[in-house]
Batch of 4 targets.
Target 1
Amino acid sequence: MAMTGIEIFKLLPKTNCKDCGFPTCLAFAMALASGKTELAKCPHVSEDAKAKLAESSAPPIRTVQIGTGDKAFKTGGELVLFRHEKTFYNPTGLAVLVTDTMDEAEVKGKVERAEKLVYERVGLMLEPNLVACKCASGDPAKFEAFVKKVKAMTSRNLILMAENMAALKAAAVAIKDAKPLLYAATAANADEAAALAKETGCPLAVKGSSLEEVASVTEKLGKAGLKDLVIDTGARDLKSLLRDQVAVRRLALEKKFAPLGYPTITFPCEMTSDPMMETLYASTMINKYGGIVVLSDFQGHSLFPLLVKRLNIFTDPQRPMATKEGIYEINSPNENSPVLITTNFSLTYFIVSGEIESSRVPSYLLILNTEGLSVMTAWAAGKFAADAIGIFVKKCGIADKVKTKRLIIPGYAAGMSGELEEELPGWEILIGPREAAHIPPFLRERYAQ
Ligand code: SF4
């Protein structure tokens, strides 16, 4: 049973030391009770109190890890229904399905695409996460060999899917150190699946034909000591799936209904044979609480929009995405290259650096830390002001890299040019274009060799 704020408060040190970021222990207790903070934020809780608070402090949706090491995939751990209430934490995992009856070339193509389709955007690497290996043959030896082969081909984490428990066991035991997700325990095989998950230490998916059935199986597995579970409600049409996804999230968060307090796995690949519809279903699942989305294939034209969508949904809405302050070299600049400056709002940086790159003019781009604000906002807030730019230009070391000291500022910040000349004696201040799209002709006109 979840504890109330007052019950939690009684177990805290009551020193009001503020180390947790809250003004009092009571405020911290209230926030903990409503899932708005974590117990780990208080470094002074006794071990005894920690044990007692474990249930209350655990996220209402368990965080489940698939795989090991740096590339391990985490799902669940969410605290809110809507991202604007706080943020979503663990991005939906995108998986591709391969089966042991597919021909070798098809498997190779799908696994290779899962490996190679990686995109860089706003300084982040966007990539799929998992390969789901399904036993379609029913043959344990064939499935085991297939899984070993796929594992050797990919660095992605694995999901092992088999209705035949002997096949699931053969493959799971063979690669248990990779900690794949085992799919799936059902009402019929729960004991056997639980034994396999315990033996291998792997997370386990639970499949049911309704929320009630799933909840009864997770409850049974929970009593058997299994906590790393992932839920498949069995829905294979969009309306039912969406209804189930929302119900699972609401029951877990609002009613603290522990049997459904797990991340979900969904299968757009089993819902349609139309690749476009499959992508749309996957997109819906990224929006609405899908922990893992299994697709029949990854193709750049459908995967990239899903990855960008996922990035947008799982970005903290209260924290602007920012690039590191510093000097960025574009197109191999030299001592005669122009120097441009802009803010560290990621989108600004990537648009401006992309335009400079496309101009083919070797340039230096200075990025000033404006706490992730764009040029206009940062200027209005005084964070992209002449004094801040002056200090940064002097200390960043760009003066040692160029002979001609000429600084190009964004057209929108033209009003500060006079003040900037005073801040940077010896530098010529040039007003650049207002729109990034006009940077290439601006640079080519002046600096093309
Ligand atoms: Fe209280 Fe712990 Fe927060 Fe200090 S860090 S105020 S002891 S809850």
Target 2
Amino acid sequence: MAITHVHGPLPGPRGRALLETWHTYEADVTGFQAPVVWESARGCVVTDVDGNVYLDWTSGVLVANVGHCHPHLVQAAQQASTQLLNNYECANVQRIEAAQRLVRALPPHLDTCFFLTTGSEATEAAARLMRRRTGRQEILSFIGAFHGRTYGAAGMGGLAGPKKLYGASLPGSIRAPFPNPYRDPEGWCAGAPDFRRYFDHLDLVVEGNCSGPLAGVIVEPYQGAAGFIFPPAGWLKRLQEWARARGMLFTLDEVQASYGRTGRMWAMEHEGLTPDIVTIGKAIGSGVPVSAVAAPRDVFACLQKGEMSSTLGGNPVASAAVCAVLDIFEREDLVANSARLGAVMKERLQALSQRSRYLGDVRGLGLVIGLEFVTDKGTKEPAKELTRRVIVDAANQGLLVGSLGMYGNVVRVAPPLVITPAEVDESLAIMERVVMGLED
Ligand code: PMP
């Protein structure tokens, strides 16, 4: 029997009324979404305010890796909230345990962490660490990168919007091209393992833009907001070597790539990367707001006491969530499930792209898969409107997906890692119908 059921076109009557109220009082400035008002969710299954039931390929933007409202996480957060909600910089038992547990879950060289509240804050903290540790100013990042919306984090991002809309960004950040295997007119993806052509160009970018040696580089293991773009194998490793050879700190933004998303606990494991700084967010609390920055002890040693804090960072509820999420990862086979079912999904979606005129590229690792829609597979012209149709049609058939990408033409496949084979089958069948429906 099907898990999903949607009666009538969306939004349903209650959903329609609520959306109107919402946009009367809260600014309507969020991104494009299916017109659904969520009421509750458990695991991979979402129920809306009209009683429609969906499968979820969003994880609430790659947050609910352990599944929505995992009972162990809910119970831990509830329990902590009855004792103490916040105590700013003071110690609390949950924070101490969370720090120990997080560090033990990280690769051994990352032996110290610090808790904050959002991914953007973690980016800002990493930027401060890179500058303080090296005594240098400038930071390299990439075109298409997304590291958050606060001023400094957006300045290190490389999506077109912020640059055009808000004027000059934070001084001291320069951006280089990110190698994109699907769109590679310059041949940046060629020449593994040294990617000579790319790194010669990178040296020119740095020379032409910097006032002195760079403090560091910040990079996502795959570009999330740009459209789930995975660089060619070996490029990140080469980038790390390039940075080290220049005395820079290498920061890996694992805000969305960690906690099993790519089929490994940490995305850095795929190429054995040893970043100097790692930023962590989203799934670390799997719905409870918390983020962290992790680094070897000697990197944090450049800070004096009082240099880093956040009003709600390390609060007992968030810290209890960090521990509960790690418990769940220890008890359930989520990382292996991500690798196994992600491979199944990618294969079926790649087969679908063979049959579709518009599904130009299917790429991913574990349970993070991008579906790039184009109007013509030869020219690769981005198909933004078709992508929006996919989102709405999928929701109407019981599947929630989000879109993103530099050209707004990538559908993101990122279900909670607890997804079951039956849920994989049912959700894929919906996506197959939706994509083949575009041919009509
Ligand atoms: N880095 C990456 C790679 C992200 O995907 C995001 C959020 N999408 C952020 C940083 C910023 O996180 P937050 O929205 O929690 O500030």
Target 3
Amino acid sequence: MSGISAVYPGSFDPVTNGHLDIIERGARTFDTLIVAVGRNSGKNPLFTPDERVTLLRECCAPWPNVRVTSFEGMLVSFARAEGAGVLIKGLRAISDFEYEFQMALANKQLAPDIETMFMMTSAEHLYLSSSIVKEIARLGGDVSPLVPFVVEENLKMKLDPSRQEARPVSMGFDIKE
Ligand code: PNS
């Protein structure tokens, strides 16, 4: 594929409206945006990597230049293999900065040819995170202003012990591989 490709990596456990804001703006800025779900995150995820990819594909269906996949191992190796020279990171409150700065410097050391670019979150998503969404959902609160409907439905399924085997529901979009 020609043009400038960027990778937007993350855990996306699950994807929130804050992530989708970055994806929408990234899709406008770059020719191709590869949304990459990290498979080897040290966190204890609620959704499996495949479930997170499926949910993201549903939510990214409106953007034809966005591709969703997962990766294992080093982010810069994945970006290089995909022919992407840019890593996109979303920045929210100041608390994100130190961790992201450290990661950006480590990635620069590992791959000087790959640039990390930070996109400031939109004001309404300043304190939105996947962890907060999961906490609210676990406590039975309303997450509808924070995540797409398909994610809300899948959170309910995951957190309801009687529906543990439920798979992510389709919203009827075409899912790109
Ligand atoms: O949404 P998150 O949890 O901040 O995403 C973390 C992710 C997947 C982007 C991060 O864990 C990652 O880059 N993992 C790949 C491992 C890697 O390349 N490490 C070396 C650079 S610090």
Target 4
Amino acid sequence: MPTSFLPPRLHYSLGYEAAEHVLGVVGFGAGRPAGLAADMPFIQAPLAPLTGAAAYEIWQAHGPVRACAHGPVTGATGGGLAFGAVRLAPGPTEDAVEQAYEALFRFLAEAGCAVPLRFWNYLGDILGDEAGMERYRRFNIGRHRAFMRHLRQAVPPAASGVGGAGDSVIYVLGGQQAAVAVENPRQVSAYDYPPQYGPRSPGFSRAGRLGGALFVSGTASIVGHETRHAGDAAAQAAETAENLRALISAAGLGHALGRGAGWAVKTYMREDGADLLTPALAQVFGAGAQRLDLRGVICRSDLALEVEAFYQGG
Ligand code: 3EB
């Protein structure tokens, strides 16, 4: 039986509504909500909403959950899913990332949800230089090492990789069966990027489909493997929308385009100006989609924005 999800809930205020069967909570400019049991997973992301109040991303399961921390990972499991989150330890980024991923893999196995479905990587100072190599490139080396040892599937799952200000965090959703990886016909697979983007290619697939659910990776204004429209955020928004449309269609979910209901969307922009995304997002997801706009640094300096999404058909 395919795993079923409730859509993630994206909250736009500090007020945390006690939700049922909470697997995990991510805070954006927000600390641990008072209503969340002390042993349940909460991680504060090094990113905040573009404007206004703090926000939470809340993942819920269909059924009772229990906390199950393991090593450095805070987590919970229930309803055939697990949520786990970890902070990067100090030290060289590639080593810290390798250790963090290894801890997440061990956590997932321990939780009985050994298959990673979706990773989120929020890195402090993502474009900064670390002893002669960009931090994001070191991140890719560490992730690659962990995947070589622990990933039991042909291609890596969906992911986002975004820079923030503060402590780096990685969180994951795991399950009991792998999602079907989906690639974008307009883009070179990230794991096949040529070496000009670093010694190890980014380990993620463009989307993962699991039953009626779709995890859409961070998607930007990249065609083939090259950035399009450097310096023009509005044109990047339109190109990103084209990429999202192509990807969602390739996933066999063309019928979900523009539906609104069932979609939860997170956007990342370096500068203010999320309004310029609104027409593009309305076309792709529909006006009724949940939406959370975050301030983030994209992992290429010429990219102004990135968009990720989750869909649960109903
Ligand atoms: C890209 O298409 C844009 O390194 O995990 C998007 C999603 C991006 C995930 C990652 C990076 C990652 O290459 C950047």
